[in-house]
Design a protein that fits this description.
Helix content: 55-70%
Number of strands: 2
Order of helices and strands: EEHH
Shape: elongated
Oligomer: single chain
Number of helices: 2
Strand order of the largest sheet: 1-2
Radius of gyration: 21 Å
Distance between the termini: 43 Å
């Protein structure tokens, strides 16, 4: 469990600080795939991600200033992730 402090001010100017406790669950079902299934899934995901990167790039060009720059930066990060997935895909194919 983790705790977060929050401060808020009411309309009358009174400020309150209080903590919120949050329980975080990290349960994951791990599904094992055959090499063929992993290859097919990763191939699909890389192509899917490239398509989304292109869409985000186009979206950034329709915006201005900081939102556009943040989307451009995210596309660069997205592409870096895709390059790593491409490398994993090459390794699976070998």
């Amino acid at each position: 469990m983790c705790s977060h402090d929050h401060e808020h001010t009411h309309a009358d100017g009174t400020t309150h600080t209080h903590s919120h406790d949050h329980t975080h669950s990290h349960d994951h079902d791990h599904q094992h795939h055959s090499p063929e299934e992993a290859l097919a899934l990763l191939t699909y995901m890389v192509q899917h991600n490239r398509h989304h990167a292109e869409e985000l790039h186009e979206l950034a060009h329709s915006l201005e200033d900081e939102p556009a720059q943040l989307i451009h930066d995210a596309v660069l990060d997205f592409n870096l992730g895709n390059e790593k997935l491409d490398e994993a895909l090459k390794l699976l194919k070998d």
